[in-house]
Automatic annotation (TrEMBL):
InterPro entries: DNA-bd_dom_put_sf, HTH_17. This is DNA-binding protein. Residues 55-99 form the Helix-turn-helix domain. Keywords: DNA-binding. It comes from Flavipsychrobacter stenotrophus.
Amino acid sequence: MNTNEPQILFPFPADELWEKMRELVRAELQTMNRENKPVEYQTQGFTQKPLFKAHEVCAMLQISRQTLHTWVKEGILKAYKIKSRVFFLWTDIEKLIEKDTQ
C-alpha cells in the first residue's frame, strides 16, 4: 500500500460515488436553471422601441450624424440625455417622418 495516497472510506465503490456526485450536481443545476429564468416584460401597446440611440436614428432616416446634430440644434428633432447617453423618442421620429411625407 502506498502511504502517499489518501485513504477514503465509503460504503460503495469510487465509481458509484462519482456517479452519485454527478447526479446531485445535475439536479442542483436544473433547479437553479428553473428558478433563475429571466423575467419577460411585455408592455401593452408598445409595437416599437420607445427610445433610439443616435446611430439607430441615423440608420433609420439614412442621414449622417452631423445632419442629426444639426437637426437637434435647429429644433427639428429633440434629443433626450440620460446620464451620458443621448436618445430620441420614437414619437418624435414618427412626427418627423409624417411631416416629411406631407
